[in-house]
């Protein structure tokens, strides 16, 4: 048997989800697997409080609900309210701000599954989200319910579950418009099938949770009619440095644990160096108030996680005893090249303006960070 690279949220936290359901005393919106308050706890954590639950074998167990999203509680609460309403939820924001992450975890808690998902792209067609046909059966017997191959939208409506629509603005307008009737009339027509089989009424619990990246083709280009059927929720980048350190630590540790490798972890001091760099370049200012060249797109928290993970893997693969500042610099360079137009200049500027003075003052690991600057230009 192979091993999955990554499991969906509902498979990663089965104990947490079960404990929340078992201890849930609040009313559940129709079709929901748990109450809004329990959904909130799944996303924001139980603050060290252990929840008792009984597993399938009847054993009494306890679990602390881990914090999965760092941000304003109110944002999460509003998102949950929208999902229980007649409007869809659209999470918008800069790349790497946990829009998809939040959508996955909300679906896992509300519907018990995050797998009814559509990825928006220019090539997406209506059949892929609504339904298609098993052509062998179609030719043999004509259109029958048995020959219908349901897509995620069809299944979500039929089962009363949340459907995730990733990068909705990248889908063609005709496909976006398909959502209009599903969201307003809560039904899906299958004109090929006669009578009652030709109308699918959405069951309670159905809704759409979409994400859109503000850097991609615009949210503004969505039709006004569709926009009206969604509540927009902007997910901002993490504002607090210590909180971002916490996120990156948690994510990198998890990735290393799942990586099937052994060796050094990302130490606190190197982690802080890495996250400080991302945080300061994103804000265009250092914590000591010095102005640096700014780049908000390339320096997302998601990218920081990736650089941290790769730095540690690098150290592990090539026999280093510790993850060093130079490992970070080596993997940071690739981040800058990804952005529109090479942004290596932004990093070089940061090294001159922010890293150098700290190295001079011999602050922590900044001297080693400065010493590794040749890796920024890929020549090292
Ligand atoms: N506020 C946050 N709380 C928890 N994790 C965060 C936060 N911000 C970023 N992350 C981490 O960064 C990653 C964000 O990735 P995700 O794919 O969800 O971003 P996204 O907003 O969908 O980006 P894109 O617009 O590029 O699709 C997640 O793995 C998550 O761990
Ligand atoms: Mg995303």
Helix/sheet category: alpha/beta
What shape does the CA trace take? globular
The count of β-strands is: 11
CATH topology name of the largest domain, in short, is Rossmann fold
Q: What integer is the average pLDDT?
A: 93
Alpha-carbon distance between the two ends: 41 Å
| Low-confidence region ranges | none
**Radius of gyration, taken over Cα atoms and rounded to an integer in Å:** 24 Å
Order of helices and strands: HHHEEHEHEHEHEHEHEEEHEHHHHHH
What is the domain tally? 2
| The first-level CATH class name of the largest domain | Alpha Beta
Strand order of the largest sheet: 4-7-10-3-11
How much β-strand is present in the residues? 5-15%
Number of helices: 16
Bound molecules: adenosine-5'-triphosphate, magnesium ion
Largest sheet: number of strands, sense, barrel closure: 5 strands, parallel
CATH superfamily of the largest domain, called what? P-loop containing nucleotide triphosphate hydrolases
Tell me which CATH architecture of the largest domain applies here. 3-Layer(aba) Sandwich
Share of helical residues: 40-55%
What features would you describe in this structure?
There is one protein chain. By secondary structure, this protein is of the alpha/beta class. The chain has 2 domains: 71-234, Rossmann fold (3-Layer(aba) Sandwich), CATH 3.40.50; 241-377. Helices cover 45% and strands 13% of the residues. α12 (268-283) packs antiparallel against α13 (301-317) and α13 crosses α14 (325-338). The longest helix is centred in the middle third of the chain and has 18 residues, at 241-258. The two termini are 41 Å apart. The model has no long low-confidence stretch (mean pLDDT 93). Adenosine-5'-triphosphate binds at residues 69-71, 93, 95-101, 211, 213, 238, 247, 251, 301-302, 305.
